[in-house]
Amino acid sequence: MRFARTIVKWRVPILILVLLAMIPCFFGMVGTRINYDMLDYLPSDMDTVVGQYELMDDFGKGAFSFIVIEDMLPSDVAKLKAEIQQVDHVDTVLWYDSIAEISVPMELMPKELYDAFNTENSTMLAVFFDSGTSEDVTMDAIRNIRNIAGKQCYISGMSALVTDLKDLCEEEESTYVGLAVLCACAAMILLLDGWLVPFVFLISIGLSIMLNMGTNYFFGEISYITKAMAAVLQLAVTMDYSIFLWHSYNEQQETVEDKCEAMARAIRATLSSVVGSSVTTIAGFAALCFMSFTMGRDLGLVMAKGVLLGVVGSVTHLPALILILDKPLQKTRHRSIIPNLKKFSLAVTKKFPVFLVIFVVIAIPAFTGYRETNDEVYYDMGKCLPEDMDFVIANKKLQDSFNVASTHMILADASLPSSTMRDMIADLEEVDGVEYVLGLESLLGPNVPEEVLPKDLISTLKSDKWELFLINSSYYPASDEVNAQIDELNAILKKYDPKGMLIGEAPCTKDLIETTDRDFKVVTAVSTLAIFIIIALVEKSIVLPFILIAVIEFAVFINLGIPHYTGQSLPFIAPICISTIQLGATVDYAILMTTRYKAERYYGKEKLEAVSRALETSMPSVMVSGMGLFAATFGVAMYSNIDIIRSMCLLMARGAVVSILSVIFMLPAFLMLCDRIIRTSPRKNRKDVQSVKAIEEEQR
Question: Cα 104 to chain center, whole Å?
Fold first, then answer.
């Protein structure tokens, strides 16, 4: 109580301090680098990642792109190549004039090599950068090349993808927050008991979001998914804490004349309630930190921190705002539109066998769909961009003109004999889907010395330690065909050079598939176990965690099973994150109802009356909380042109609704069915009785 009274006493300085903290938080938010390269989060000990480091350390090369040029004379292509070569952080540009003088007809090249880089009206440049795929300077170089090249040129490669992704994200992100705020505000205006209250809540939550985003500066960088989702998710999952404080404050004012004392008591009640509520949400986000694909840790840490700051904000600067604006808040109060739910609750409880049957009937196809959805996700990040983006158009041009869908690179021991290199190239070119292999040996005959080639070309493809080969494939990254192709290529490479490395977008994506498949199982197990333990400790029961998790997992299975039956393919990261977030964020609904049910039974109510009363009193809070989560994410899902953001927000919005329905209809049925087992659990928890008053306050 001392803490609560201190907050009330120093409310104005606290609010001023928080407002002043927005200044460094703004600069911290602006100064936090955003990473748009999903492959950058792979474990650093993988061959594909080690190979990228070797390429940078030994050759001074990082990113790689092909540029398709249409309807341009060779002399003009040569001039354009020279201009591109001058762009900052462009290391090397390979084209015909890298091998021979432009005055020598291109048709004199070996036919295989000519066809690899030329069509009737197109030619292709290979560009190496001296910086990493997703570095800011690389993206600046891509933009500069586009400005120089004009509309006849199309740039492919991961750097072009992350450049377009960054530009689209920056264009849309402010709208995400605006839509989330607008939709959440509309939901709260409809469901709460005051016209002004939602705006005060949004100001308070907005301050907590700024604190969270500003302190991300200490992480160095965050992923673009984290940046795009964090504010929306924090708004959605921490709104409950503000609602609880407001209801508790109004209840206390009915018994205490002094509004400051009423607020102090409300802070105390809120703190004891929201701490328990927030623990399951934090546990859900924290489970993402167990992913070896470290983007999960990125999102998990930021969101766990955001929930914690949301709890702190609900008992510090929100009370200050409410007390300062108390008069207009009280004058603009109105009755909630949620009707009396007594008859509805009794009807649902009496028909519990029907809902148990429905549970069994739906659970099997829901779980089947859920499992199939996890197997049908896509990993090709190009699919998350709209069809009219420059990168998507360039990739289509590359595929249509040159039958190149992906490019691999091989680093082989430079000391291997030339004859061995030629044998390896011959074997590599026999693999299905390989269009050609470009290396020094493919440019030279068996009796032609390296010295006849320009020194710049030799240094591009060979160092003292490694020789570099480019393999163009007709198979798209993340496809079953390219993954099988990579296995064959790796087997051939290891036969000739056990220390050789196969790198590039497709090999990295194959590693990503294997990594995240394992991560999904680990994260699901960790989040479920952590939440099970939390519920067991909170409810003092071994039986209840099984029931509550079954009810929410049932909702998760439905939510993630729907895409399978509707033919929707999800980005790979969505099921991993959503299954954990939905469980952690919505299991509170089930805990709220169960706590009330236990208290009613402890008071001596009969089973039917206790469950019906628990449903009646808990449903308004469940509906307000769930619809807040739905509103904050649904608008973003409808607006976003980035499929990862759209899919995750749509799943969160639908998951909130399905969890509401599952708790309202399925949980009472399980409480009725398992009443005797629950009541014979180790010991009754007197805190359940104490919580009844707090729950009733929240309903009001």
Answer: 52
